Each structure stands twice: as structure tokens, then as C-alpha cells.
Amino acid sequence: MRSGYVALVGRPNVGKSTLLNALAGEDVSICTPKPETTRDRITAIVTTAESQAIFVDTPGMHKPERRLGEYMNHEAKMAAQDADVVVMVVDASEGRAGPPRDQIVLEHIAGVHNPVILALNKVDRLRNKKDMLPLLEAYGKLREFAAIVPIAATRGDGIDTLMSECTSRLPEGEALFPADTLTDRPERYLVAERVREAVINETAEELPYVTAVEIEKFDERAPVLHIAATIHVERPGQKKIMIGTGGERIKAIGSRARQSVERLLGRKVFLELWVKVSPDWTRSNDAMTRLGYASTTAGRAGK
């Protein structure tokens, strides 16, 4: 038996969350077209008779402008350092422009001594497969990779090969979680993420980046699961936009989120949403900690 942690790292919007869900065969991590969607380390646990791989989705590594961005970079870097195997995910569709843009990721994982596998994602968008050869050569010059695997996460191409490359490099040992465990994240966290996903998909401009979701009520005793959540923004104008004219936007967010939560939990849900102004929370350590964005040094078991 082999078991251990596999961290998926890379820049924002290269497809890490899509890849995590493809590896798990379930929608564990939220996915949107907007960059910087993932804020925390999120696990998907894949167990077979021969191995248990705990895949860890991480925030995109970027140049932060807020305290929240610093937190996200720290989470990604710690996940890479804690992992038994690291998968660096890159966007093949960017062509020759890709390798220089990944320099920030290489800097963050420079101290990683465990195997690093390169996952060349979105190869289905290449017009000519021969275009992959100069990319493989360019990335191969950046650092030594244990393996390079072309994939198309949205289509599932190359996923089995990547899975095999990862699990074969995990240390020998017993499973760390029960075989039927999909993630170590609690339901409240997963529900909050589905609400935030709805917010991102229903809003534009700066709103997705200054929004946090806090679950206030999770009542399973009612015939229909009753969930109340608060959506935090930073300014009164953002609250007005979030609610929309006559409450149209918050209704749309609620409808989208409720359907997603019902699919997640497999039961009917009554969802209440409130919008609250928490001034400059993305720049405040105290506010971020209260909303659940507190970096941990507890190691892999803590996440």
C-alpha cells in the first residue's frame, strides 16, 4: 500500500481545481472562469486497493495586492512543502508565453526536494500537437521534473497516466483516511464554497475578490435542511450591487447556490442569504481570521 499527499500548484486559472475534480471523479473544489477562485487548501482523497492519494488543490500563486493574497500564496507554498509529491500545473494553450509566466511558481517551489511532476494542461486547445514539443523542451529547462504528463482536465485526457505517475511515487504506508472518505473538509465549508461560487458566477469586476461567505445556521433537525449564510463585502456600494435592483441579483445567487448545495448534499435545502459590509476585511488579519482565512502551521493533518 502506498499513501500520501499530492499538492497541485500553479498560477491562477491554469486548471488546478478542474484537475482535482477530474482525479476525484467528484466536484470537490469549486470552479469558475475567474482567476483566484480557490483560496484554501482543499483535499480530494482517492483510494484504491493499492494506494490512497490525498490530492490538495491550492490557491494560484501570484503577486498579492491584499493580505488575502498573501494568505493564499502562503497556503499554496505550505502545501507544496508538506506534500510527498508536487504536481505543477501549467497552461499549454499559452504557448511559448507560458514558461516565463510560471517563474513565480518555480520560485515558490524552489525548496521542494520531493518529486515534482509537470502537468501540461489544456493540450486539447493546441491546434497542432507538434506545438507541444518546444513547450516540453522549454519547461524541461526550468527545473528537473520527475515526469511530464500532457493532460486535458476538462475532458479527462491523461488523468489515468497522471494518477499513476503520482501514486507510484508515494511512500509505502497504510491509508491515512477511511476508504470511503472523499475530503477532510466539513459540510459547512463545502456549502460556503458553493455559495461563494454562485456569487462569483453572478457578479463581475471586483466583487468576487472581496467576498467571503460565513455559515450562520445549519439546522438539520428541520424537515428541509435550513441554512443561513452571510456574504461579506467591503463597501456599502458593493452591498448594493450584490443585492441588485429589487433584490434580483441576490435572488439569482440564492437560486444558483441552493441548487448546487442540494446536488452536493443530496437533499432539499432552504437557503437564506444576507449581505454584510465588513470594511477592508481582505486587508485585516483579525477579520480574515474570523472569516476562516487563518494560515496554519499544524502540518498536513491540519488541512
Write up what this structure looks like.
There is one protein chain. The chain is of the alpha/beta class. It folds into 2 domains: 2-167, P-loop containing nucleotide triphosphate hydrolases (Rossmann fold); 187-290, GMP Synthetase, Chain A, domain 3, CATH 3.30.300. 33% of the residues lie in helices and 21% in strands. It is built from 10 helices and 9 strands. The strands form 2 sheets. It has a 6-stranded mixed sheet, with helices on both faces. A 3-stranded mixed sheet has the order 7-8-9. A hairpin with a 3-residue loop joins strand 2 (42-47) and strand 3 (51-57). Helix 7 (187-202) packs antiparallel against helix 9. The protein is globular and about 55 Å long. 41% of the residues are buried. The model is unreliable at 297-303 (pLDDT under 50).
Radius of gyration in whole Å, from Cα? 20 Å
Strand order of the biggest β-sheet: 2-3-1-4-5-6
In the predicted model, the low-confidence regions spanning at least 5 consecutive residues are 297-303
**CATH-derived architecture of the largest domain:** 3-Layer(aba) Sandwich
Largest β sheet strand count, sense and barrel closure: 6 strands, mixed
CATH topology term of the largest domain: Rossmann fold
Helix content bin: 25-40%
Task: Kindly provide the name of the CATH class of the largest domain.
Answer: Alpha Beta
Oligomer: single chain
Task: Please indicate the count of domains.
Answer: 2
CATH homologous superfamily identity of the largest domain: P-loop containing nucleotide triphosphate hydrolases
Strand-pairing-aware structural class: alpha/beta
Shape: globular
The portion of residues forming beta strands comes to 15-25%
